[in-house]
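Obj.: predict assembly geometry.
Materials: sequence records (below).
Method: joint structure prediction, all chains together.
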Amino acid sequence: MKVQGLTIQENNMGLLSDPNRRRALISMLTRLNAPICVVCYMAGVAWFMGLAFEPFTLRTYMSENAMGSTMVEERFPAGERALATGREFAAHKKKVGGMPVDWLVKTMQSQGLEVFTQRFSRTLPFPDENKERYVVEGTNVYGILRAPRAPRTEALVLSAPCSPGNNNNQAVGLLLGLSQYFRNQIYWAKDIIFLVNEHDLIGMQAWLEGYHHTNTTGMDWSPLQGRGGSIQAALSLELSSDVITSLDLVLEGLNGQLPNLDLANLFYAFCQKIGVLCTIQGKLQRDDWDTASGYSHAVQTMMLMVLKQASGRPWGDHGLFLRYHIEAASIKGINSFRQYKTDATTIGRLLEGMFRKLNNLLERLHQSYFFYLMPSLSRFVSIGYYMPAFGLLAVILLLRALDLWVQLSALPSRTEDGIADIEQSGPGVLSVLTPLVISHLTGVALYTLPIRSQEMAVEHFPVFETEAVVLTAIAIYTAGLALPHNTHRLVSGEGTEQGWRVLKLVAVLYLAVLLGCTALINFSLGFILALTLVPLAAFITPHVPKLLSALFMVLLSPGCTLFFSIFFFQELQETPVNLQEGWVLFLSVISQGILDHSLYGSLVYPLVALLVYPCWLLFWNILFWK
Amino acid sequence: KRQAISLLASQTSSAPETVVTPSQPEDDFQEELVIRPLHSGDIYASFQFRTVWDTDFMGGKKVSHYRLFPKSLGQVISKFSVRELHISFTQGYWRTMQWGQPFLPSPPGAELWVWFQDTVTDVDGTWKELTNVLSGIFCASLNFIDSTNTVQPSASFKPLGIGNVTDHRFLRYATLPREIVCTENLTPWKKLLPCGSKAGLAVLMKSEKLFHSSFHSQAVHIRPVCQDWQCKSTSWELRQTLNVVFDLHSSGQGKREWSLFKMFSRTLTEACPLASSSKIYIDVTDNPQQFELSPATPLLSQAVVLGDRRTYSVYDLTQQATFGSMRSLNMLLRWKSSDGDMMRPLLHGERYVAGYGLQTGEIHTLMYNHHPYRAFPVLLLDTVPWYLRLYIHTLTVTSKGKDNKPSYIHYQPSKDRVRPHLLEMLVQLPPNSVTEVTVQFERALLKWTEYTPDPNHGFYVGSSVVSALVPSVVAMDTNSTQERPLFSSFFPSKEESSYFVRIYTEPLLVNLPTPDFSMPYNVICLTCTVVAVGYGSLYNLLTRTFQVEEPSPGLAKRLANIIRKMRGVPPL
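Observations (raw structure tokens):
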């Protein structure tokens, strides 16, 4: 036995302990480095594309026993009345010219809820042109249905936004209809909070911060008077028509966070039970997975999810709940030209069913996955399946790093003795440090200057504040390309062969760590960045043709990735845009990204500005190494 | 409105007292039901049953003959040398802002506090045994009370009976916020009554109705009281109370109309024959503006309860006339209008956990003083389990934006797995203000066997207790103490211009960092692999001696070595 064990170990690890074999392995890895990298990249992309192929995905299933096996009967009868309430709400909204606070308070009170209001105000760092707001002031109204014989420790939230214009009146009507109906039931075990939030996400942010008494974004809000304990789950309702053809489920929240998959399963189960068409990313699911069009449909659905998740912004009012570890999703009613329509009573029954199941929960939703992609509503790809796609891309960086390491240790051996080696390493550190510091300073400038210098920009150029911010960002981004390269020459004189290798080794490892961490938190963002940054990190040396590579690098830079992603996203949504419109969208997406960061604490903008962009600049620096 | 009350008062004081209390030399049983219509349209029913027994459990002689006093409790008192025992089981949270103050407050879940006689030497051991015995008597999980949730408050829980021992070494207080109260707890509670649920007011206690309510609380209080006004000898008092609030929307079907039958699906036909007094009080202070009552009763009673002078219609069940020709009593309360404001409770508390993430958090306790011009001090008692590690240096008390320095702080830090944090403070609440007490905490990572079977549900932190002498709205009438109804005579009140109130905040549900419990399997697999591959190869590298391999020897040498080996000689 002993002998056998020894031989196995020798076989396993003899590779490393035996200098000859180690040498052979390393020489193979360096010799075949480029082909292996190419194969890994292809395999990574192929793996990712394979994720949407139905036989490779898993069917969704309810993991939470408390929701799976219990029977619920939906009896909500009052859809028509809810719509009438919605119309009444619309009339009051029009009369007041905003949130009809008094009417809502009175209505909810008459239903027997405990009603509270919260005032909030927020001055945006610069005007939001998409939603035309700068100084935002508003009021949230919420009513708490106290569960009988429950000690106020757990709550569920149903929210509907009070949107400007004629939007979402039906959602508020249905919310009030449901609250009336729910109030008369005896079976509630958790308090239910009915929230009508003004100014969509800003109001939601104010309410959540007030509820948890935190202040992460510097917003002004009045403290909440009533609470229902720890919130277990939340649903946000968006409904703008009396009848709908399908319901769309929105999962992507702040920073690419997703609710527990069981929440999606719950929605899907009730859609199936009640017979409502349901979609995710606005796409119905198809049965013909074995045809090319069926597969491409699944790919499109999944790619939409990847792009939305990568954007890191909340795609519905639910998105901000996820930070507080509250499972939440938005349900949007869609009214298209399809023949078959669903009325408000049916939607009410669906929501009633979901709430009753959530009410049955004994623990927080935790049984199912938190990290997943969905190529359709009934299929999912778990983290164990999609991570290898990223791993295959990331391993390229490690292989390149190994290659560089070997080259570096091989280089000094060509010189005569070790003394020269030590002398060389001295300036080597400085020549690495300087570009690192300079590119990060550029990153800091990109992060801070756009908002800070808007007034100056508005004074000197004929632009609005929003344009000023976006254009400053683009200007700094572009200026960064000219600024830092060849800085090492200031400190270390002529750039050496070894110098750029050390810098590239550092940059490659930096990128590997950066992408690895990003992918753990937000797979989609990490994967998209890896898709574009890994090839350029792999091939860039000072010896490749300068002009062509520079063009290639610029095209693969984070900014251009965003630009292409916008076109791709529009294409997937079946609303293609031309170059002009794309540019306008690009500008607005940048401003939204900066706003998301300062309003809700989205991390994508600081990540790109402070880490990804400087990292990319390092490679730019290597390209122009002299 | 005040005028109306005084008018009523003058009317009732002139009315002849018709209550006749038969004298009982040894023991005495009284039963009572108070019904208070609430402004929200809900209705509050509070039962109180009092058994007083002129005996001495402690006097050395064994008490073996029991009549009205339940034997099970009597034995508990004598065996464990209990001086005072208060136990409550509550399902739901008392909504002070909607319902006003309850007659007897209690926190959600189970609460138990006991004063032991000063003859008890091993208080902790006796407490442990007592909780286990009570757990059996009341079919509740009181056996989960151990040192990790027991505290000895220094000021908040004073004895309510006679006696002058106030050394809090003999006091034990514990709550189980997670305790669910149901029929299995009601049945043993009803069995303690002399008439059981066969006759008297207890007939109304049908569990399917009592638990079809917004709030349900049942309690047992045992204490020594004076036998007479001279207080030369003591007797034991057992009070059993049951409070229930029926919801207008789910049990009243939205109609502002209540009757005994609608509340309890029973009517009354007789009093408990063993009771010396059996009465129903209906709070008609707002009558006749708000609601009408039928059948009408000529009996009116005045009482100052919780600082407010209230008027009650009294139905005496010992009188045959009360039941009328139908031989059953089913009174009906019908609201005429739903407007009118409730007097805002002067003191009200709230509590919540702030922050997000699973590392730290902050407990906020809010205490509202709604009195327009008077400040009053309150005692705040906070018991926090050890797995929330309080950062006591972050403790702040603020009212009206200013720092409010507590005049008394008693803090006992927790010991991991042994005892909880205990924080008691005497805080002055300025008039018309909110006082906020905040303290930060860190969530501990438990050992994996310490998690409950449903760890993702969260862990409970019991209610904090706010005890206060609240300035009274009306000056208390000192003359009528002898004839006061039971519900108004529980907490002794020394100062006439203020009354004692105890409020409980909501319990907290806090999520602790919870491991994925399928993880051990993964961890075992992972560690085995790491140990096998990592350790094995490292060991291999460390222990192996490396030497350059010589070129393989020739055939002749190998043959020679084989021969040498067979001979047992070292090879060449």
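Conclusions so far: The first strand of chain B starts at residue 27 and ends at 37.
To do: check interface contacts against the pulldown list.
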